[in-house]
Fold these 2 entries.
Entry 1:
Amino acid sequence: AQSVTQLGSHVSVSEGALVLLRCNYSSSVPPYLFWYVQYPNQGLQLLLKYTSAATLVKGINGFEAEFKKSETSFHLTKPSAHMSDAAEYFCAVSALTGNQFYFGTGTSLTVIP
Amino acid sequence: DTAVSQTPKYLVTQMGNDKSIKCEQNLGHDTMYWYKQDSKKFLKIMFSYNNKELIINETVPNRFSPKSPDKAHLNLHINSLELGDSAVYFCASSQGNYNSPLHFGNGTRLTVT
């Protein structure tokens, strides 16, 4: 079975500091991985997705993630945090059937002015 | 133009009542989903439909009954509401491939008193 684990349910960074949100996956085959962001009282929006074309994936709002097979990781980073980045972030992996997504437990990002 | 829209946004009701949540997508996707997000932000899939056919039915009480009149609509009917049903319910859609991301609605916050 496929799954993802997000380490750290809460992360706080200062405005302008590096953002690093961790995601590790468990999959017996090359996975398809996604990062989503959820702003308060809204649905989830896609930040970026990994589909094996390139290990470094760039997403919206300056976020990027690197797929590391040796570490089974797909961590999300942003060089400089902005106040507007405060939100809940979810890592997800899709099943090969395409009809099932497995979400991590989420990481709440707080940006301190 | 809203891609995935669900109504109502808020639903407050008493235990024992029956309520429905409606969802529509204008993305031309074949697959639609219902997810439940609890107070800890954990996302759990409830149902998935592909071209009006039920393909995923997780361990959900049979008080919950999805209905898909066509591939652009997926409604959720809940009978005999219980306190534990209080949550945010998200509708989502996708093309149904393993590398196609989910597109979420903005959620329906259900409060059962």
Entry 2:
Amino acid sequence: DGGITQSPKYLFRKEGQNVTLSCEQNLNHDAMYWYRQDPGQGLRLIYYSQIVNDFQKGDIAEGYSVSREKKESFPLTVTSAQKNPTAFYLCASSIGRQTGELFFGEGSRLTVL
Amino acid sequence: AQKITQTQPGMFVQEKEAVTLDCTYDTSDPSYGLFWYKQPSSGEMIFLIYQGSYDQQNATEGRYSLNFQKARKSANLVISASQLGDSAMYFCAMRVAIYNQGGKLIFGQGTELSVKP
């Protein structure tokens, strides 16, 4: 079945450690996105990529990094520079640059101990 | 500034009744799109309905309809005949165009809907 796969679903990290969240899609979508969700709040855009080998910062990119070496994959690294990384992270994709509807993965919940 | 506002943090509705979730938006771009997503407690985001800024008619998808009032910049979601499975967070979102970089969605804070049996 086509869709977006995020892993791991739950992740625990010690302070000062970098962690990478995986996002893979087999929908043949051009655009991919990473959002962060804090309890009781909406989604905030971290990074997005419209095509392979290109990506742009969203509204809260500080402390995060991404790569887009393949169309199918858009991993997110939460670095030690991110001051408050405990959150729910959602990856999404859309068909093209102007198409708005996003298809979401099931999310990754990161907890910093 | 482009912004989505949902003023109802929580709503209750009796099963089988209709409910309206409010959403107002702000943009100076004449071309935009408005979306509603549902987020159950499992965390996944489920697309419900879409309205384009140039669409003449209000969008409908089964029990969901979008009450689009362009002059008021509102895009309220109406759920008819509520079911227990409708209990979830609901997010309004707007597609924002970025010159030469496609677009992105910005989201409101969400409304938590609880359906009572």
